[in-house]
Design a protein that fits this description.
mainly alpha, 6 helices, 74% helix, elongated
Length: 202
């Protein structure tokens, strides 16, 4: 019979892992806030130059993707499609991520609570596998599909925003953003700084 101690899982290790996770969450939250601000500042400046009347949408959680969608270099009708499509995909992606995370957390919580209550006794690993693995796999696959669609659409929108720089720079920024999404916030800010310099030269 497989038991937790066979995998080196002890209450002490679980406590240490929980502490490290908490510290990691705090650091990640600080980085996310910084990137959020850079995204808003950069996108708002670019949107303002493009003649958008409500560039302040760039600072709002979901409407920022509406503004990013309108940065596509295309006709107004196409811009409207992307402006509605991008926030919709982002919202759907968020829902699937939350559901998948909840299902995974349920299984992890069973493991953690069982390890905390071991008290030197043996616990069968099979007794912990009670969370809906099948549902988790289904939602994980759906999340990956929606996430990929959102990445492709957002990459097109990012390219439109980055095009304030040279085409080569815009392509490089877009590719790097597609590989690592957080970089998009930094590149938007860089692109907006370029706009400011151009205005100053004039």
């Amino acid at each position: 019979m497989l038991r937790l101690e066979n995998f080196g899982i002890t209450p002490g290790r679980v406590t240490a892992l929980t502490l490290c996770t908490a510290i990691g969450i705090i650091i990640a939250a600080a980085v996310c806030i910084l990137l959020y601000c850079l995204f808003g500042i950069g996108l708002a400046k670019i949107a303002k130059k493009r003649g958008e009347e409500k560039e302040w949408y760039a600072y709002l959680p979901l409407l920022r993707y509406y503004t990013l969608g309108k940065m596509v270099k295309a006709q107004n009708s196409v811009k409207k499609v992307f402006a509605c499509l991008l926030p919709s995909l982002m919202a759907l992606k968020f829902v699937f991520c939350v559901v998948s995370a909840a299902l995974l957390a349920r299984g992890a919580a069973s493991l953690i609570f069982a390890a905390e209550n071991m008290s030197g006794s043996s616990i069968a690993l099979s007794s912990l596998i009670s969370f809906p693995v099948g549902f988790y796999i289904v939602f994980l696959i759906l999340t990956l599909i929606v996430s990929l669609a959102a990445k492709i659409v957002s990459a097109i929108c990012y390219f439109g925003a980055f095009s304030e720089k040279s085409n080569t720079t815009a392509i490089v920024f877009t590719v790097l953003t597609f590989i690592c999404c957080p970089l998009g916030s930094i590149f938007l800010y860089i692109a907006s700084k370029g706009i400011k310099e151009e205005k100053a030269d004039e």
